[in-house]
Amino acid sequence: MLNNIIGPLKLPELLQFDNGTKINTEDEWLNRRREILNMLSEKVYGFPPEDPIAISSMVSEVNKDAYAGKVIEEHMILSAQLENTIFPFPVKFFLPKHVENPMVIVYIAFRDGVPDRYLPIEEITDEGFAVATFCYNDVAFDGEDNYVGGLAGILKGRGERKENATGKIMMWAWAASRVMDYLMTRNDIDHDNIAVMGHSRLGKTALVAAAYDERFAFCFPNNSGCTGDAITREKEGERVEHITKTFPYWFCPNYRKYAGKEHEMPFDQHFLVAAIAPRFVAAGTAVEDTWADPNSQYLSYVAADEVYKLLGKDGFIHPDRLPKIGDTLHEGTLGFHLRSGRHFHSRYDWIKYMEFMKRHRI
Length: 362
Ligand code: GCU
Hints:
By secondary structure, the chain is an alpha/beta fold. The protein has a single domain, classed as Alpha/Beta hydrolase fold, catalytic domain (Rossmann fold, 3-Layer(aba) Sandwich). Helices cover 31% and strands 20% of the residues. The chain has eleven helices and ten strands. Strands 1-2-3-5-4-6-7-8-10-9 form a ten-stranded mixed beta sheet, with helices on both faces. The two termini are 34 Å apart. The structure holds alpha-D-glucopyranuronic acid. The site of alpha-D-glucopyranuronic acid (GCU) has 7 residues, from loops.
């Protein structure tokens, strides 16, 4: 059944180089992955900013007995030393006391305040996870500001905005990697099991962060939809023309060329998911979120599966049908759940992601 849905979409091939050569081995896939990331930078998200020369943290506040005494809470400023300047941004870290060496979730947040309706810290730390979180607006403002502030200001100051210039999603993803740099300097957490997570535009960002940074062992894109995990061809709801009109600054200028011309794209969003292989990705979707389009989201995982299989992983274990409310497909390396309700980062989603991470801990 799914073949009949995917076939007519004529998706660009994952296991074939741009020059048409087929990919049969893991080594060939590694080259193909580089080609894919380059293509996604050039045509969708813009190129990642440079890696920092060094990263440092300055703790401004510590509460050793937060959340009824169960959690150590630290507020800090992370500073990335770049070639000619320093980029600082605030990060909050929560460490549960009742577990040793906890797994960590890097949460890219809409808002500064913690806890937040999308980020129920106490429930997460009670489950034994540490959390590191930052607010995306503290990295680059989510609005049309002509790239004057934050990281956007630093990059813009380096010249004209080119057709493949860094979009803000890529900037937020870069910041998640700086949090990863910092986490690698701590010796009280599980370095092998660090996830990146975000909702909606920040779910798109989580996918980009994990695709470009192999240190993230897990990625949890919640309701990420258009230009996140939803196949763009024949997608319902939001399309390239909508997203590039309302949020042009999320992407490089090249992306808008595909508005109304999705069939000309030499990629689709299964490329972004496959670039994370062989690592874990589990998505959350909501049945009323037709703007994101859960069926098209599902198809990305179905289509990315062949790369996981090539790499010897289980990939996406799923029935031969579209998803139903209540589905939790968590057996494989790729996971997916579809819940009732609307676009939201709900407790239900959190429970699913934490279950997935515990089940597949490396
Ligand atoms: C808008 C946008 C979506 C995005 C969402 C969000 O609806 O069109 O692409 O995912 O905002 O970030 O909440």
